[in-house]
Amino acid sequence: MTANPPIPRLITAEEFSRMPDDGTIQELVKGRIVRMPPPLSFHGLVCVEFILALGEFVRSHDLGRVFSNDSGVITERDPDTVRGADVCFYRKDRLPAELPRDRYLDIVPDLVVEVKSPSDRWQKVLGKISEYLTAGVQIVIVADPKTDSAIVYRDEGLPQTFGPTDTLTIPDLLPGFSVQVAKFFK
Known about the structure:
Helices cover 22% and strands 35% of the residues. It is α+β, with helices and mostly antiparallel strands. It has a single domain (39-72, 81-185), classed as tt1808, chain A, CATH 3.90.1570. Strands 3-4-5-6-7-8 form a 6-stranded mixed sheet. It has a two-stranded antiparallel ribbon with strand order 1-2. A hairpin with a 4-residue loop joins strand 3 and strand 4. The longest helix is centred in the first third of the chain and has 20 residues, at 41-60.
């Protein structure tokens, strides 16, 4: 009789945050490490354009902080899931006075931007959107380089699609913010 291999134990978000950097891009999904290839160059460009637009607006109005570089967001506990948001925004009134340097924030962002990669399937993207919204993120924006569009998802209501000639606004979270969508894809 052959023995079944032992089932690896699940990892917590805290353990995941203390793991050494092995040079790969990873997320923690239901306690298990998932590796993924680095994003394509254009993906990074779109992220930067969102960071610049959101960051300038947020900073000039002292509204909070914008994070990038796949900053870890805890979306589920027991088993833990830590997603690497492409770009995210936290309102000032929700952030601690001093950001922790050795662990993930205990709060979810108010807004997450995910840039859809060519290899991403919509079913997977929609699952991640649902996960963010269920965790308490108010708004998730999916930037789709294939169509030069931005789709805004909220917990309530239908998604709102902004094409390249449309102006992206988020009046319920960032009143006064407006950027022509095409700018994110140039």
